[in-house]
Design brief:
A hairpin with a 2-residue loop joins β2 and β3 (about 105-115). Strands 1, 2, 3, 4, 5, 6, 7 and 8 form an 8-stranded mixed β-sheet that branches. Helix content is about 50%, strand content about 15%. By secondary structure, it is an alpha/beta fold. The protein is globular, with a radius of gyration of 21 Å.
């Protein structure tokens, strides 16, 4: 079933009518095909209208949609022969980050991504997509494996942030993230990062250093959540929608500020409406990007990666 958000309420009402007419059509044999077709066209046009002018806060809600495709949903549609790698060989295995070896376009590849859960048990097992230090160290292990065998790395970002709990801090959360940044910066292999949902703070950036960074159309990427920003600026998390307006966290805003390299269009209504279509579009973008990166010498690739990082941010001298 499609889960509709509050701003899609009018579409949800029409779709409920369509489902009711279909039930009557099928069970009672009443010919309602014309009325169903009319309502379907109305639903399509209304959805087009709503999604043509989404606010940053509405996009944030879409990025968090409970039915949005997660890393493993994309992996099974984009890669073949995926074999997951578990554990960091230091403490344990963190299910909030998945890593593995796979085949992409007839070539070996390494996959790293945040993974959320769907139901209560899987959400708890995945820690709501918030990694602990062992998750980031598992990602480091995967990158070093990619270097050893000259494999490209594909990362999929989707986390509200790194886990802020006491046990994570006691095991060196900040050190793990910092070492990840250094590992990715120096990695002697192509890296392509995709923000597929929420890109939250250092927890996202830890696997976001790449030669090419792209975002799904209705994903977000920011240094803090809108709720956290509102709590700091106005002491009121309820003003999250106001914070979202000024944070520049949408794919459109980030592309305009040269912080990402491309945006992948989603099916009308969001990626959760059609997993296969969303994955197909993303796969095409990943394939064309990898083809381009493989033509660049590794030393030049690393040099350009560093140049990109150093170019972030703008300032103006005064006085």
């Amino acid at each position: 079933m499609t889960v509709f958000l509050e701003f899609e309420k009018s579409v949800a009402e029409i779709n409920a009518k369509i489902e009711e007419l279909r039930r009557v059509h099928d069970e009672d044999g009443v010919d309602l095909a014309d009325e169903i077709s009319r309502l379907e066209k109305r639903s399509f046009k209304l959805t087009q209208s709503i999604f043509s002018s989404l606010s940053p806060w509405q996009i944030t809600q879409l990025a968090r949609h409970p039915m949005r495709p997660y890393t493993l949903d994309y992996v099974k549609r984009i890669f073949t022969g995926y074999r997951e790698i578990h554990g960091d060989r230091l403490f344990g295995d963190d299910a909030a980050i998945v890593t593995g070896l796979a085949t992409f376009e007839n070539h070996g590849a390494v996959v790293i991504g945040h993974q959320k859960g769907r139901d209560t048990n899987s959400k708890l097992a995945r820690n709501f997509g918030m990694p602990k230090p062992e998750g980031y160290r598992k990602a480091q292990r995967a990158v070093r494996l990619a270097e050893r065998f000259s494999l490209p790395v594909f990362t999929f970002i989707d986390t509200p942030g790194a886990y802020p709990g006491v046990e994570a801090e006691s095991r060196g959360q900040c050190e793990a993230i910092a070492t990840n940044l250094l590992t990715f910066v120096k990695a002697r292999c192509p890296i392509i990062a995709t923000v597929i949902g929420e890109g939250g703070s250092g927890g996202a950036l830890a696997i976001g250093i790449a030669d090419h960074v792209i975002m799904m159309e209705y994903a977000t990427y920011s240094v803090i959540s809108p709720e956290g920003c509102a709590s700091i600026l106005w002491k009121d998390a309820g003003r999250a929608s106001d914070a979202a307006e000024v944070m520049g966290l949408t794919s459109k805003a980030l592309l305009a500020n040269d912080l990402i390299d491309g945006v992948v269009s989603e099916p009308l209504g969001g990626a959760h409406r059609d997993y296969d279509a969303a994955a197909g579009t993303l796969k095409y973008e990943l394939a064309s990007t990898l083809h381009r990166l493989k033509e660049i010498a590794i030393d030049d690739l690393i040099a350009e990666r560093n140049r990109r990082l150093m170019s972030y941010g703008k300032f103006q001298s005064v006085g």
